Amino acid sequence: MSDTDAAAAGARTVERALHTVLSTPEGDRGQGIDSGASLLAADPAADAELRLRGEGFVRLAWERGWQPADLVRLVRRDLDAPHLRLLAELITAEARRYERLPPRWTAQLADLAEFAGPDDEAGSRSRRTDRFSYATAVLELYVLLIRLPAVEPVGPVPGTPVHLPPSDGEPRMLTRIRALLAKAEATGYPQEAEALTAKAQELMARHSIDEALLADRTHRGDVPGACRIGVDAPYETAKAILLDAVASANRCRAVWNSAYGFSTVVGFEPDLEAVELLHTSLLVQGTAAMTRAEAAQRAGGRKRTKTFRQSFLMAYAHRIGERLAEATERTTREASVSDEGEGGGLLPVLAARDVAVTDRTDRMFPETVATRVRGVTDAEGWHHGTSAADAARVSG
Fold first, then answer.
1. Which of 246, 298, 359, 375 has the most CB atoms within 10 Å of its CB?
2. Gap between the Cα atoms of 81 and 3, Å rounded
3. In the predicted model, what is the mean pLDDT of residues 381-393?
4. Euclidean distance between CA atoms 394 and 396, whole angstroms
């Protein structure tokens, strides 16, 4: 058989295997995957076509609005390490076709390095236990990718050629903010973390105002963008509320998709960057404070409970939201007083940006619904969570 005939036969094998899996009723999906994996394991000529199909499924997911980080999050939640490695290899191979990517995609692709193995076929094969197990993992991954629905896009499809102005790297202000938050997370002294986080929030608010004024005065034509931030279990409701509080305080809007474990944040780019930085830092600080509070509870004879942690994080998110809103209002008021001496105009500029963000959010999510928050039943957890939020205060 010629190479061409072998490749054609392999393609038919892949088609039969996929049809076998997808035509099997949901309750018998495991049996369908076993049958499909047996077909693939028996035909080495199917390997190349199977890989090409996977890259196509990744591309289809991107066209449906998904990002590389979203796929990694879903596979990590629903499947196992071998599937993550396969996904990383597929995404890396697909992205290689394109010369330039937007910065947010570039960062996500760089994060795949921890899952991908050696960048060659021999390295990939060396990580397989046997052909049947490998084919089983591939089909399980492909079923997840094929069945992904379309979601709201938050930027250009990864791999789409884009024309971006040359970048001189991260603005110095963001570098300073990142350094302050890193120190706040690392210190073991609550007062020091409080001071560092407070300074970071001041810089964020001032940076947002400066960017808004610059865009208005130079007629730069900025428009709201969007990004996705993972909201992982456990206690995802509390984490989503914390993210919503951070987003609101930074003139953004957050919409939580509980089914797929992420929130979409809509806002202007400088504000999106602030939300990503601050939410991550506050989550780290809150988790550390919760661990310390639990240790104190156990020392007093109380066992660690899920309700304590849930109530702690809910209270933490609620109080942080209040303090962030206060800090933003104060910083804006001080900036507007200063701006009046230069001719004014700050408040109308900020109002116009708020309207633009709201309009973009409404167009992206015309059918959002509010949900009732449950699970706050532990008074001690609520008290300690509120105290931790006060210790991590972000006001000047």
1. 246
2. 33
3. 60
4. 7
More confident call, 14 vs 111: 14
Which range has the worst mean pLDDT, 11-15, 20-24, 90-94, 160-164? Answer: 160-164
Does an H or E element contain 14, and which?
Answer: helix 3-22
End-to-end CA, the chain:
76
Cβ atoms within 10 Å of 244's Cβ, excluding its own? 21
The tokens of 370 are what?
């509010």
- Find the helix or strand (DSSP H, E) in which 329 lies: helix 306-340
Is-contact 355 283, C-beta < 8 A?
no
Strand ranges, E, within 12-119: none
Contact indicator for 255, 365 with CB cutoff of 8 Å: yes
CA distance 88 to 238: 30
Please report the pLDDT score of residue 382 as a whole number. 56
Region 89-96 average pLDDT: 90
Tell me the C-alpha distance between 206 and 201, whole Å. Answer: 9
Mean pLDDT, the chain, rounded, equals 83
Count of beta carbons in the 10 Å neighbourhood of residue 282: 26
Phi, psi of 190 (to 5 degrees): -55, -40
* pLDDT tens string 176-227: 888 888 888 888 777 787 778 777 877 887 888 888 888 888 888 889 999 9
Cβ atoms of 250 and 201 closer than 8 Å: no
86: nearest Cα among 45, 60, 51, 47? 51
> Residue 393 above 50 pLDDT?
no
Look-up of token digits 């991954």: 141
Q: Which of 29-33, 233-237, 383-387 has the lowest mean pLDDT?
A: 383-387
142 vs 138: CA distance, rounded Å: 6
Q: Burial code of 141-174, b = ≥16 C-beta within 10 A, e = fewer?
A: bbbbbeebeebebbbebbbeeeeeeeeeeeeebb
Angle CA 242–103–238, to nearest 5 = 10
The answer, yes or no, to whether the previous bond of 171 is cis (omega within 30 of 0) is: no
Q: Which among 90, 258, 241, 228 has a CA at the least distance from the CA of 152?
A: 228
